[in-house]
Amino acid sequence: MASFVTVRGQAISLESQTESLLSKYAQFAQTTSSDATGQERTLDNKLEKVLIQRQDIVDSLRKICDETQGISTSKTLQVQRHQEVLQEHRQHFRNLRSSIQQERNRLNLLFSVKKDIAQQSEESPDAYIQDESRRIEESHNVVDSLLSQAWQTRDQFASQRAVLQSAGDKMMNTLQRVPVINQVIAKINTRRKKNALILAGLITLCILFLFFTW
User: Fold this and answer.
1) Residue 82, Cβ neighbours under 10 Å: how many?
2) 114, 118, 85, 101: which is closest to 19 by C-alpha?
3) Mean pLDDT across 144-162
4) First to last CA, the chain
5) pLDDT of amino acid 133
6) Looking at residue 208, what is its pLDDT?
7) 40 near 94, Cβ under 8 Å?
8) 0.70 cut: is pTM over it?
9) pLDDT of 31-74, one tens digit each?
10) What does the DSSP assignment read for 16-75?
């Protein structure tokens, strides 16, 4: 196993290399092109590999500290500091990459708008009028379709209402034609009234009984 000093020397060397690469990569954020150049892609890939390599080295340093008895506190703190610097460089790299991509998207949007304006200016007035007329006609067709669907829905509701009304009329006619049903309904109503009177009388008697016996 390599010594702590040797592995830490590699970590320090890669940290310096990362700072140099980040400095070069930051230039693309200041002068962004609509498409990534070959140099930008190469630098991006190199930074990715260096950061991964540095994480492996920090893990090796941490393993040495764990397996070495009586390791000094200063070495443990050094490993922790290397990890913190690595995180800072990673975040800086992500921020630069995001800034470059945002600027590239903005440039591409501007180019697209300029291209559309140029194409419209090259078109003849007659072609523009025909295009607008076609769009208006399509809008009218959509409105006509919606109105037609609305009328169909209204007719369906009216038809359903007529069916329900017809069913109700048939039921009433059936009740009127069958006297037995009317008689049964009348008897049920009469019995309900009698039960209500009996119940009211019982309640009154109970109240009077309690009043006089209390």
Assistant:
1) 22
2) 85
3) 73
4) 104
5) 77
6) 77
7) no
8) no
9) 777 778 888 899 999 999 999 999 999 999 999 999 888 889 99
10) HHHHHHHHHHHHHHHS--SS--HHHHHHHHHHHHHHHHHHHHHHHHHHHHHHSTT--HHH
